[in-house]
Design goal:
disordered N terminus; Growth Hormone, Chain: A; 476 residues; two-stranded antiparallel ribbon; globular
Length: 476
Amino acid sequence: MTISETSPRTAPPAEETSAPSADTVVLSHRSGRWVDGWNPENTAFWEASGRVIARRNLGWSIFAEFLGFIVWQLWSIVVVMLPEAGFAFTSSEAFWLISLPSLVGATLRFPYTFMVAKFGGRNWTIISAGLLLIPSVLLGIVVGSPETPFGVMLAVAALAGVGGGNFASSMANITYFFPHREKGWALGLNAAGGNLGTSVAQFAVPIVVTLGAGATLNISLAGWMWIPLILVAMWGAWRYMDNLSSAKADVAGSAAALREPHLWLLALLYIGTFGSFIGFASVFPKLIADQFPAFSTIQVGSASVSLAFLGALIGSLARPYGGRLADRLGGARVTVAAFATMALGALALVWILPLQNFWAFLLCFLVLFAATGVGNGSTYRMIPSVFAARGLALGIDADDAAGIALRRKAAAALGLISAIGAYGGFLVPQVLNLSQTASGSYVPAFYGFVGAYLALLILTATVYLIPRRSLAGQRI
């Protein structure tokens, strides 16, 4: 089996191009780092050079997406520092500053999914990373003046939503680079690397803005501190990433996926898992500040540290294990267990809040975050399994045109469900906001979360644990 690479500047020997065999992979490089002929399913090509190229692109994709999550979630930690910096926003206004980036980010995931095919993975990574400069710079400016109107602050917070869109384009780009047998590993790394950005933002920002600041906060650094890293991501994408001409937008597959009822059921489950993760991660610093102000930040030398970062950290690290458990035990079983644990965690918080015990409160939330992380992985793993079972139920041959169409529909569903699930990042803070505004307490909200998780548990068990003819009698 022959593997060759050609370039416009160096023509290959005539014997290599005159009559290539069916197994030959010929890569052609064009200006702008465009690559033609990419075929990761060819084992010889993959082992010889494909894996190295794919992993190089994966590394820079993770870094850019990681920064996207950081910018997306910056306001979650900045909001709790605004009173000390001289701002006098109400609690409801603070919730809007926290939740609006998630609303915008979730919405942007839909168009971002198609940008890789339109502009190229390398090119769009440069553009999408460059867009992160806008909310970062503006945040650094507006938080420097306590006279900044709330409407201006809200607009700048909304712009941070561009970081949330990066997940969709990054995942779409990486799926083109890897063979089917390694997509799960690659996409899992990509997703986990991005999710960790939330934790890093909540850990690093309090340290940087308080380090050496004395009695004041250098809160503007919350935006400025990321500029050098964003520039590095843009340079790395320009220098080391590639555009694949084989990356094509599948509008027809997306339209077909939207007509599949199971897409909407799985999206609802993903709102419950990933939506809860990103929603609680964004609001956790404020909940600590509201309920336990003495523990909002902990002084370590001349810097302050917020323990809120632990929630996003635990949830991010738990996600890969959810996928691995789903491979062994079945996605539906793991998702049911995750929702059960989430319901117990939310119920425990109802009992803990009146006791005003911070460490018990933190422990309950960490259990809740771990369950959301496991649920993220298992629910995402269920998506291809459900579509495969639908194919069996409909008697579709995997190798014919209908089988190819089904695989396209399943691939499109992954992106669409990730976008819909991100709306939970807006819903969770707003439910807590409504609860506090109406009753002066977060307890009703957590009772609501318990009910929602139990309903999703029943839905998962009923549709995906009990063998059904529509899923070829399979447990997912």
